[in-house]
């Protein structure tokens, strides 16, 4: 049986009550926290740094899935590894030495994932997929929450799922951006197995998780 995991993106949290919302996420049955790290250069927004991630790690028993949307990601790997990251995603578009960067993450004994923007073809990952623990498909242009899902992201997920099966690989396929209860079935059918949800989740965390678990039982 395929295990489908739900990751809560704290980009959509109310940061004035962040600790309370993280505890609510834990209590609801979410599998991981997804932390978007933005530097104002790679994407047009600024979020949080390793010190905040370390504090989140200290109050949460959920694994921290760190997504680096930054220029010069190699500078940040050790800092976020030390802050308590369970996995780190780096963008294919952000580093010309991607193989070395993935190996640097894996040397920290944490999951190493590669992420691609909406306009990037998954074909460019063919020669890195043997080495990664996962791929994060961005289904919106990164930088802000609450955007509409880009439909051709499904083709990317299907390509990555087929490549994984054909080459007997074992990486996870994540999807982030515009995810809601209306399109989750399509994402899972295409091959995604780690679903990242932001604004749709925080309308009613417990209710969303309940419906998600019902839906995934039917789909899987």
TrEMBL record:
Annotated GO CC locations: cytoplasm
Residue positions binding substrate: 9, 67, 143-146, 176-178, 198-199
Pfam families per UniProt: Ribul_P_3_epim
UniProt pathway annotation: Carbohydrate degradation
GO terms, biological process: pentose catabolic process; pentose-phosphate shunt
Keyword line: Carbohydrate metabolism, Cobalt, Isomerase, Manganese, Metal-binding, Zinc
Superkingdom: Bacteria
Catalytic activity of the protein: D-ribulose 5-phosphate = D-xylulose 5-phosphate
Positions contributing to a divalent metal cation binding: 34, 36, 67, 176
Keyword Protein transport: no
Cofactor comment text: Binds 1 divalent metal cation per subunit.
Residues annotated as catalytic: 36, 176
CC cofactor: Co(2+); Mn(2+); Zn(2+); a divalent metal cation
EC number: 5.1.3.1
An example molecular function term from Gene Ontology annotations: D-ribulose-phosphate 3-epimerase activity
Biological role stated in the UniProt entry: Catalyzes the reversible epimerization of D-ribulose 5-phosphate to D-xylulose 5-phosphate.
UniProt similarity note: Belongs to the ribulose-phosphate 3-epimerase family.
Protein name: Ribulose-phosphate 3-epimerase
Organism name: Desulfurella multipotens
């Amino acid at each position: 049986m395929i295990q489908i995991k739900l990751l809560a993106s704290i980009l959509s949290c109310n940061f004035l009550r962040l600790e309370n919302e993280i505890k609510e996420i834990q209590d609801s049955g979410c599998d991981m926290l997804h932390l978007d790290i933005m530097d104002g250069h790679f994407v047009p927004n600024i979020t949080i740094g390793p010190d905040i991630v370390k504090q989140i790690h200290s109050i949460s028993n959920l694994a921290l899935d760190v997504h680096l949307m930054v220029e010069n990601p190699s500078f940040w790997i050790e800092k976020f590894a030390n802050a308590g990251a369970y996995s780190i995603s780096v963008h294919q578009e952000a580093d010309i030495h991607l193989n070395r960067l993935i190996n640097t993450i894996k040397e920290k004994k944490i999951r190493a994932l590669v992420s691609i923007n909406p306009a990037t073809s998954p074909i460019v990952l063919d020669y890195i997929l043997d080495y990664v623990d996962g791929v994060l498909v961005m289904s919106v242009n990164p930088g802000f929450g609450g955007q509409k899902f880009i439909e051709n992201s499904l083709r990317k997920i299907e390509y990555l799922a087929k490549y994984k099966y054909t080459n007997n690989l074992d990486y996870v396929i994540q999807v982030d951006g515009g995810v809601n209860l209306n399109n989750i079935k399509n994402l899972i059918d295409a091959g995604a197995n780690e679903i990242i949800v932001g604004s749709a989740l925080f309308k009613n965390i417990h209710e969303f998780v309940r419906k998600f678990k019902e839906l995934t039982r039917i789909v899987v």
